[in-house]
Design brief:
This protein is an all-alpha fold and 227 residues long. The chain has one domain. The protein is 70% helix and 2% strand. It has a two-stranded antiparallel ribbon with strand order 1-2. Helix 5 runs antiparallel to helix 10. The chain is globular and about 50 Å long.
């Protein structure tokens, strides 16, 4: 697997998403209003966008150097290599909802919708997101969610998971997992937080189409293309 496979599409898609997000953010004053801890919403918003990009670029590079050159496992061994990768992954992915929440506090109370309706919508989004968390912990495992099949050939022999939420979709992480990012914006009535969540949700699908799906097709070539 070549490191740059489909990364021209990745770059172009990211540029388009950033352009659309930048246009929307600057079109309405409510997106940039507010501050938190002495930092404007502008700073929190683009820091969150940058963190999403950093996280997904990290995963692309980490996966591809492992698939192409076994860099992590050759230098550190399977468990130590995967553990180091997973620690960095965890820090980056946890920073995403933290920064989304910071935006929500910085930009709170600016969404012209009834709080009861926003709270109800947040609750409805929480249900599938929580079910996904249960399904990952109970059936899929966190190691598989982090991409252990890029590191351990034995993990590639595990059957496709079709229990829990995965009986409805194989892309549960992307369809339902990222719904959690909308909750701070809904609960705090922050349009900027919702826009940041929408950018990150759209961008994770770029990752799927340009990184994860090609990787799965490569890894599981003898089992047919990834679905």
């Amino acid at each position: 697997m070549k490191i740059l496979h489909k990364q021209a599409q990745h770059f172009v898609s990211l540029v388009i998403l950033l352009a659309i997000t930048f246009w929307l953010y600057n079109r309405y004053e409510s997106f940039s209003a507010g501050s938190l801890l002495g930092r404007t919403t502008d700073i929190w918003f683009w820091l969150a966008a940058g963190m999403a990009i950093l996280h997904q670029v990290y995963v692309w590079l980490a996966w591809r150097v492992q698939l192409g050159h076994q860099t992590w496992t050759r230098r550190l061994g399977l468990e130590s290599g995967f553990r180091l990768y997973a620690v960095i992954f965890s820090v980056l992915i946890l920073a995403r909802p933290v920064l989304i929440t910071a935006i929500a506090y910085s930009n709170s109370g600016l969404l012209a919708m009834p709080p009861a309706g926003l709270n109800l919508l947040a609750f409805l989004l929480l249900i599938p997101a929580a079910y996904l968390g249960y399904s990952v912990g109970k059936f899929f495992t966190v190691r598989r969610a982090f991409g252990i099949d890029h590191f351990d050939p034995l993990a590639r022999q595990l059957p496709i998971e079709n229990r829990g939420i995965f009986q409805f979709t194989r892309n549960g992480m992307y369809v339902f997992g990222f719904l959690i990012l909308y909750l701070p914006g809904l609960l705090l009535a922050s349009p900027a937080s919702l826009l940041a969540a929408a950018f990150q949700h759209a961008y994770i699908w770029v990752h799927y189409l340009t990184v994860e799906k090609p990787d799965m097709d490569y890894i599981y070539a003898n089992q047919g293309p990834a679905q």
